[in-house]
Amino acid sequence: MANLVDLIVSGLATGAIYALAAIGFTLLWQTSQTINFAQGEFVMLPAFLILAAMRVGAPFWLAIVVGLALSLALLGFAFKRLLVDPMLRHGVLPLAIATMALSTAMKESVKTFYSAEAQPFPSIAPSGSLSIFGSSVSLQSVGVFAFGVVAVVALSLFLDRTSTGRQMQAAAQNPTVARIVGIPVERMAMLTFVINGALVALASLLVTPIYLAKFSSGDTLGQAAFAAAIIGGFNQVRGAIVGGLLIGVADNLAAAYVSTQYRAAVPLALMIVVILFRPEGLVGRAEERTV
Amino acid sequence: MTRGQRLLAGALAAAVLAGLIVAPLSLGRYGLYVLSLWAVMSIAAIGLNLTLGYAGQVSLAQGAFVGIGAYAAAILTTHGYPLALAVVAALTLSFVVGWLLGYPALRVQHHYLAFVTLAFSTLAFLVFRNEEWLTGGIYGISGVPRPSLFGLSTAKPLPFYYLCLFALGVVTIAFWGLVRSPWGRAFMALRENPLRAASLGVDTRRYTLMAFAIGSALGGLAGSFYAPLAQFVDPTPFTLAMSLNLLMMVVVGGSGFFFGPYFGAMVAVLLPEWLRFAEGYYLILYAILVMLLLVYSPSGALGILDRYLRRRDARIASALRAAAGVGLPDELVQ
User: Fold this and answer.
1) Where is B320: in which H helix or E strand?
2) Coil vs helix vs strand at A181
């Protein structure tokens, strides 16, 4: 029992991180039909940007600011301008392949220009542990979970309650009509890419202290984010959070109680079942597109 | 195609074939390995080109089928069965599994299908890695023998390369026949407009499953040559990365173009080798080149050629029209 609580809490923590990556992933699909196969690498890179800034002598807080700014510029703006825009009108597949090539380029660049070794990374969440139901739970997990939930709630509020957020939803649901009523659809699409840049930077900041910074860490993250997006429902922000948390917990429980060898299979099996029996996702609605 | 163009195409094909037969004579062991790998990967990419390029079904599982074929061949040949039997077994097994994987494709499309096949690919990798009693787990199966045909041993790299090339040739001819048959047309109808295909009496359900099954079977066939080529089979090559790589071959070469996979496999297998001069940077350079190519021509390398030919044909046609237009008043006068 004691063990179970800890497993669930740490599962929720990783799940919240998956959810952040998954939300960005669905946002890009909604607004620009971009299946970003490099999303895992997008989460991997900001940690290295921060580490690089610290290496040249910046304090941790300044390095975070620099890392965030660079991810907005590179993973948001430049990604959209240089890769997505020229290919968008040619359909989903060539762009998806180009993002695969991008993921290789990012992985290899980090490996070549920074290091092939896993790097330790300072944590922004407090260390130590907490006692819940008589079992100790690491404060870091609770902190990561809290950060993730706050970010998702803030994003949902932004999308539902602000004018810009509602314009973004309109641009995603029906670009033609949105354009007619005067919404700057292009700018809204760019905004989603920039938001994705922020989401992956946050996810990177939260996940890297747990799993270390490594060039290849995007592989598992990316797959978990895909699965989370599908399980929750591709067209819902809250779907992605349900999917992310479910996968985080299922993954941890499967590793502990089913088999460590097939732990990676559990989220995927879950995903196949959802796709076959409820393709719109657990909380999604069919034939609807919402940011 | 005019007669001159057909002659030109024939001459070009003969020249390429002659090059493929003669050039390796001067290559070393490693060069032959890379070239054989190109032939094997081309077979797998041809299979995926059928599923994706002709029938329009996205599959991220082709690497898993290469793995299934490779393991089938490795297990059978290390137990003393001949490679021919292993090839048949690999074909049959991947055909059946591919058929079953086609069922989700009847329900879901596009990116959902991509993710189902992606999940399948990862599950297959886990089976290769974890079922030690069958696959040898992470230690793999070593000492996969190369076959003897008609008393000729293919243990040396050069004869084995010719065997791979022969297999590629057989697949090429069979595939040429397939895409020109009513089946090939049905596959393309499926890609272009499934609803219309169904209303014209094409059994879309059966052809979707068929596209998956035949494409996968070619993946398995490639695998059954991969095993004796590498002479060692372990799970590491058959991760999702191989499926993604195969998909990249098809799209970079030109999805739906007959010769796309050959070119795509060349880009994916040979280009990294040519870029070795860049040492540590070669994979970065390679990935950037792929992105540039796709930004320049999203329909792949053969898309560039196709565009050029079409533009030229359009120019010729408009020149002919202009000439005919000039001639017209004279006739009217008479």
Assistant:
1) helix B301-333
2) coil
- Residue among A112, A269, A279 whose CB faces B112 most closely: A279
CB spacing of B104 vs A90 below 8 angstroms: no
Rounded Cα–Cα distance for residues B46 and B13 (Å): 17
| Whether B284 and A83 lie within 8 Å, measured CB to CB | no
Sign of the torsion formed by the C-alpha atoms of B10, B36, B244 and B95: positive
Cβ-in-10-Å burial (0-12, 13-18, 19+) of A1 comes to exposed
pLDDT band at A291 (very low <50, low <70, confident <90, very high): very low
Our CA-based measurement puts residue B163 at a distance from the nearest CA of chain A, in whole angstroms, of: 32
Determine contact: A2 vs chain B, CB below 8 A. Answer: no
Report helix angle B29-48 to B62-78, nearest 10: 120
Distance CA(A205)–CA(A12), nearest Å, equals 16
Query: Which of A103, A268, A289 should be substituted to probe chain B, the one whose Cβ sees the most B Cβ atoms within 10 Å?
Result: A268
Q: Which of A30, A82, A93 to mutate to test the interface with B (most CBs of B within 10 A)?
A: A93
Torsion angles phi and psi, residue A138, rounded to 5: -70, 135
Distance between CA atoms of A288 and B8, rounded to whole angstroms? 52
Measured distance between the N- and C-terminal CA atoms of chain A, rounded to whole angstroms: 39
Task: Find out whether B262 and B13 touch, Cβ atoms under 8 Å.
Answer: no
pTM confidence score: 0.83
Using one digit for the tens of pLDDT, what is the confidence trace for B43-96?
999 999 999 888 888 888 999 999 999 999 999 999 989 999 999 999 999 999
Q: How close A12 comes to chain B (CA, Å)?
A: 22
- Break chain B into its structural domains and give their ranges: 29-239
Quote the crossing angle between the two packed helices B157-180 and B3-22, to the nearest 10°: 160
ipTM value:
0.82
Residue range B219-243, pLDDT digits in tens = 999 999 999 999 999 999 998 888 8
Angstrom distance (rounded) from CA A282 to CA B297:
38
Using the beta-carbon criterion (under 8 Å), do A105 and B281 form an inter-chain contact?
no
**Which residues are registered as beta bridge partners of A213?**
A119
> Are A108 and B291 in contact (CB < 8 Å)?
no
Interface membership of A104 toward B (CB under 8 Å) = yes
